[in-house]
């Protein structure tokens, strides 16, 4: 109800001449960037109807799509951000846009473990092996957060990236993942699509369990 009322207010302001090209004082955001960064799909649709530039950048170098993918997202917010990203892409947003550190929307969606957004970006041609300035691909980002995002199906994202040709990250690149007990249940996932493994592996073996499954098995 609150979001609906705010959307009505925004519509009224635009009808009475508010500038769709206005900018915030802090980061030079447009209304569309604010809506995207806060996961407000109705506002994003409204601003686009009024002619908002879909790929305008702010002072941080973020387009609205980058802003939507970059904002930390709680589990209950994932669907709203997915709707925003879908709206932006339908309006022609650049799926290959990068920020100052060369992060793409796919890098950011993987970091947030938003599986629906990852699937959406891949369906729109996102490149799985683009590297940011630190030399990391989107696969690195999902593996870094898998321990903390178990309920968001990180294995689904790994499978999608692999099915689209992602590089297989070598075990030495995953010290954080490998030393956390919370990763055990996630790494039990069978990436061939056959369900969870019956055996629980301990942290020193987790990396190899995952790595060998990626290298040796056919991903369906």
What's a concise summary of this model?
The protein is mainly alpha-helical and 220 residues long. 48% of the residues lie in helices and 2% in strands. Helix 3 packs parallel to helix 5, helix 4 (64-70) runs parallel beside helix 6 and helix 7 packs parallel to helix 9.
Protein topology:
Layout: H1 2-15, H2 31-37, H3 41-49, H4 64-70, H5 78-90, H6 105-111, H7 115-123, H8 138-145, H9 154-163, H10 175-178, H11 184-187, E1 189-190, E2 195-196, H12 203-216
Helix pairs in contact: 2-3, 2-4, 3-5, 4-5, 4-6, 5-7, 6-7, 6-8, 7-9, 8-9
Record keyword descriptors for this entry:
repeat; two-stranded antiparallel sheet; ANK repeat; Ankyrin_rpt-contain_sf; Serine Threonine Protein Phosphatase 5, Tetratricopeptide repeat; 220 residues; disordered C terminus; Ankyrin_rpt
Determine the structural class based on helices, strands and strand pairing.
mainly alpha
* CATH third-tier fold name: Serine Threonine Protein Phosphatase 5, Tetratricopeptide repeat
For this structure, the quaternary state is single chain
Strand order of the largest sheet: 1-2
Shape: globular
Order of helices and strands: HHHHHHHHHHHEEH
**Rounded mean pLDDT score:** 79
Total domain units: 1
Number of helices: 12
* CATH architecture grouping: Alpha Horseshoe
CATH superfamily: Ankyrin repeat-containing domain
So what's the CATH class? Mainly Alpha
Q: Largest sheet, if any?
A: 2 strands, antiparallel
Radius of gyration: 19 Å
Total beta-strand segments: 2
Strand content: under 5%
Percent of residues in helical segments?
40-55%
In angstroms, what separates the terminal alpha carbons?
43 Å
Any low-confidence stretches, pLDDT <50, length ≥5? Answer: 174-209, 211-220
């Amino acid at each position: 109800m609150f979001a609906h009322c705010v959307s009505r207010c925004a519509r009224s302001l635009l009808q009475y001449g508010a500038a769709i090209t206005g900018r915030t004082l802090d980061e030079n955001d447009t209304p569309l960037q604010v809506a995207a960064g806060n996961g407000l799909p109705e506002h994003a649709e409204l601003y686009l109807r009024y002619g908002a530039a879909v790929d305008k950048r702010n002072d941080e170098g973020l387009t609205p799509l980058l802003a939507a993918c970059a904002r930390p997202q709680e589990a209950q917010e994932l669907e709203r951000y997915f709707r925003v990203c879908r709206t932006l892409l339908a309006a022609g947003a650049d799926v290959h846009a990068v920020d100052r550190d060369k992060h793409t929307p796919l890098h950011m969606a993987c970091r947030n473990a938003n599986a629906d957004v990852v699937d959406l970006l891949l369906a729109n041609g996102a490149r799985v092996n683009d590297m940011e300035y630190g030399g990391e691909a989107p696969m690195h980002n999902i593996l870094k957060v898998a321990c903390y995002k178990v309920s968001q199906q990180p294995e689904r994202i790994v499978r999608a990236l692999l099915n689209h040709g992602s590089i297989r990250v070598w075990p030495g690149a995953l010290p954080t993942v490998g030393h956390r007990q919370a990763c055990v249940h996630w790494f039990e996932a069978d990436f061939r699509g056959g369900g969870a493994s019956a055996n629980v592996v301990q942290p020193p073996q987790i990396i190899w369990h995952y790595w060998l499954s990626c290298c040796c098995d056919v991903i369906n």
